[in-house]
Amino acid sequence: MYMAEQGFGEDMVHHPKDPDGLHLCALSGDETIGALAAYVYEPGAPELTHLELPKVDGLSVQIGKRLEEAPYRGALISEQLGTSMMLQISESLRPVRFFLTVRGTHRRLIDRYARRGFVRHADIGSGADAVTVMTIEGAAAMEKLYVEYRALGKRSMHNGTRIAVPSLVPFLADTDREHLLAGDLLGAENIYLDPLPRKEELPRLAAQSRLMAAEQRPRLMATAFPPPPASLLDVGTGPGDALAAVAKEPPFSGYRIRGVEPSPDLRATARSAFPQLDVRRGTAYATGEPDASHDVVMASFLFIHLRSPDLALREMWRVLRPGGLLYVVDVNDDTFTGPDEIRRMVEMHDHYYPGDRTILTDLPRRAGEFGFELENHFATTVRNTGDSEPVFGQDEIVLRLREGWGLLAFMRSQETTAKLFEEAQKHYFRTQCELSLGIETQVYRKPAAQPDEQLQHLEKCSASRAAPAES
Ligand SMILES: C[S@@+](CC[C@H](N)C(=O)[O-])C[C@H]1O[C@@H](n2cnc3c(N)ncnc32)[C@H](O)[C@@H]1O
């Protein structure tokens, strides 16, 4: 009925590419009330040649089969599904091109996509079959589109109109399309390090690690970590200060501790400063660790710097043993309080930053998609109203004004924020205004194997034991 209502012809419903498409439908009871599809093409796919699209080095994604505009029920729902689909594809597949075909008469749609940055590429066919092909490609245009969709997604999350759709990552992996996921591509970029001057960042990180060691002590003691002998993997170890401090805490006595870090520089720094630490090459998307090899995975100030939290969650789930813990510590800019002059800078920084300094707001939902259960959630507010050394209270750290600015000082390094940064900094020291920012600790458990899974595992083991040895 929905298809008829939309005017979708037989050729569109039974399209030869349909089985390969990614389809998102919203249902009310048994009835479809919104639907959206996307098609992923690898380089050289005949469909691209047919539409006269030049070769590109990476995935091309077609949005919809043939876009139509009609005032129909579920238009807003379909728009929400579209935003979510675009975001998920951008984060986890990292295509180099989006394109769409619009039926020739739908001028308003053509204009709408042109405003989003799509370029009219070709007009194909004639009469009732005429379509306009629109594309968007190139790193800068793709990034701009992603940032715009992300802002739309956040707006709907904050005003409560978002429709949370299932993650594409497990869906693609479970349907033999894992090769489309962009773990390697994502692992090759480091959005945290790229814009930062190391000379300033490393001392800032060392100071942050000292603060966090004190803040974390009661959090670690309040968490039910698996007893030793056990193993902890720290993802994104950086220069090692934070991991070295954690390794000394009582819950980890008797643990085997290992870190993975993608930056060769930071690995070298960590190894020379803390020779006792085992720090290896690896990323959040590909740690290089075997399946179910760790009891605890730690991600400290990592998730805010990841473009695809879902791909990282999947990798963390893979390396954790059933019953193991994912321990996440990060800042959350959604908790910022302070004057508008500074809020504007924070919002501008976060709008353009390719990572997401508010990801902790959405992480429980995302982690739930992979089966993680949120077991503990601690929140600490960092304030700038102190007049001495840092003071640690119940769920609170109080810093002096100057150190308080250190919470945001790195925002200077982003070009788009530079001007607002200067104004915000002047305002801060002139008015000595109060501000605060939250740091959250979220502890997730990978549930212990269910009885029937255990049975399957035992059956597999006994079958392999019973099998004759290969000669
Ligand atoms: C803010 S530092 C945090 C370092 C340390 N975990 C701590 O708590 O102080 C972020 C770290 O994540 C690393 N990183 C960036 N992208 C990563 C990725 N895709 N996978 C793993 N680590 C990554 C950076 O190189 C850097 O060492």
From TrEMBL:
Ranges in coiled-coil conformation: none
Domain Methyltransferase type: residue ranges: 233-328
Pfam families in alphabetical order: Methyltransf_11 (PF08241)
MF term (GO), any: S-adenosylmethionine-dependent methyltransferase activity
Listed InterPro entries: Methyltransf_11, Methyltransf_Superfamily, SAM-dependent_MTases_sf
Source superkingdom: Bacteria
Protein name: Methyltransferase type 11 domain-containing protein
Native organism taxonomy: Bacteria, Bacillati, Actinomycetota, Actinomycetes, Streptosporangiales
